[in-house]
Amino acid sequence: MSNQRSAPVFLNLFRIRFPVAAVTSIAHRISGVLLFLFFPFLVWLLDLSLQGPDGYARALALLQPLWVRLGLALIGWSLLHHLLSGIRFLLIDIDVGVSLGAARRTAWAVNIIGVLLGLACLGWLL
Amino acid sequence: MSRHVHGQRPWLLQRLSGVYLAVYLVYVIASSMQHGAYSHQEWHAWLGHPVMGIATAGFILAMLVHGWVGMRDVILDYVHPLGIRLLLLVLIGLALITCGLWALRVLVLAAG
């Protein structure tokens, strides 16, 4: 009991060490699940958009509401983060960027560029 | 397949489908950014073109494989009760197959 009490507890968020590559990895999973959930809507939009000029106009109209465009920006981030972190994992598979320093740098790059491109999507959609 | 290599095939399929999806998406994003807004006719002609239709059918197929392996990994990692796990896997599989057949039908109709 006394041993457990004396174990260090780091509840200070500024002192918890959460490796940046773990953020890249969990975001890869979350974005992957979001893309899976979006897939039926993508097929639906594809179907509608190819049903003559009327269907195409209706598909475009479906993308107009603000909440839809916010959702699409989230899907945009998901796609771009998933793509970038996927390329990073593929490179690591073939032994590129495996060293701790390189892996940290590429993880930061993927996370930051993913968010910047996601914001660019948001700006383009609004 | 021996027990030692169990899990190697999904691992490989995930990477092969991932590479295809990446190449297709980079091409589609780049070409549509260059093109700007599509009219209905241009859009239909683009997807109705045999090369783009086949490439897109490949995208759908890669999406089914990649989505299945990825979602399966997530479910196996986070959902442990066997019943719920099986139920989710069946639902995910059915959803993917339904979407895949639906998308292929749309592509065939667009090409015809």
How would you summarize the topology of this molecule?
The complex is a heterodimer of chains A (126) and B (112).
Chain A lengths: L1 H5 L13 H30 L2 H11 L3 H28 L6 H26 L1
Chain B lengths: L7 H28 L4 H9 L1 H29 L3 H30 L1
Helix pairs in contact in B: 1-3, 3-4
What does this structure look like?
- The complex is a heterodimer of chains A (126) and B (112).
- In chain A, 79% of the residues lie in helices and 0% in strands.
- With 126 residues, chain A is an all-alpha fold.
- Chain A has a domain at 20-37 and 66-125.
- In chain A, helix 4 runs antiparallel to helix 5 (100-125).
- The radius of gyration of chain A is 20 Å and the shape is elongated.
- The mean pLDDT of chain B is 93.
- Chain B is elongated.
- In chain B, helix 1 (8-35) packs across helix 3 and helix 3 (50-78) runs antiparallel to helix 4.
- Chain B starts with 7 loop residues before the first helix and ends with a helix.
- Helix content of chain B is 86%, strand content 0%.
- Chain B has a single domain (3-111), classed as Fumarate reductase/succinate dehydrogenase, transmembrane subunit (3 helical TM bundles of succinate and fumarate reductases, Up-down Bundle), CATH 1.20.1300.10.
- Chain B has 112 residues and is mostly helical.
- Chain B contains 4 helices and no strands.
- Chain B has helices at 8-35, 40-48, 50-78, 82-111.
- Classes of the chains: A mainly alpha (126), B mainly alpha (112).
- Chain A binds chain B through residues 29, 32-33, 35-36, 39-40, 43, 46-47, 49-50, 52-53, 56-57, 79, 83, 86-87, 90, 93, and chain B through 15, 18-19, 22, 25-26, 40, 43-44, 47, 63, 67, 70-71, 74, 92, 95-96, 99, 102-103, 106, 109-110.
